[in-house]
Amino acid sequence: MLRNRPLIAHAADAASHEVIRLAVVGEPGAAQFLNADVLHDAVGAGTGPLAGICAGLEWAASLPGVSWMMLVPCDTPALPRNITSQLRGAAIAAAATVVAETSDGLQPLVSLWNTSLAQSVRQAVVAGRHKVQDALDAAGCVHVHFARADQFLNVNTLEDLKAADRLLAAEA
Asked: What is the pTM of this model?
């Protein structure tokens, strides 16, 4: 919990006003809280982030008229509120999947994926290739630089949670 809300709610806030539907991989309670669809790692695709991305891509590709899937991790509560539009602008300009980059390096779980990649991502995870960065590289992704690395803080410890609270307080 951060500021009386689950971490995932903060992450969803960054993208939700610019997406058609939300989905959460693997956590029914979080999906229910967000009024989102619940997804599970793709059958036969193993486990881990790329299996979740595979499930998301297959789900998004099944939606009429949807050709892009925005991905944000549930534990990044301070993402820029216009993250989707910034990535979407680059994706449309380059006709490619895009990934956020900061001075800390690539942020592969903050990315916008073309749903046409669903089959190739499934083939990769079924073949035992589970690295998200490898899938992004294979897709020929474009990097979009964000000046504030602190907005991509991944909350894993109590200290991270305190830092996230300070970030959100400073932006309020």
From this structure: 0.91
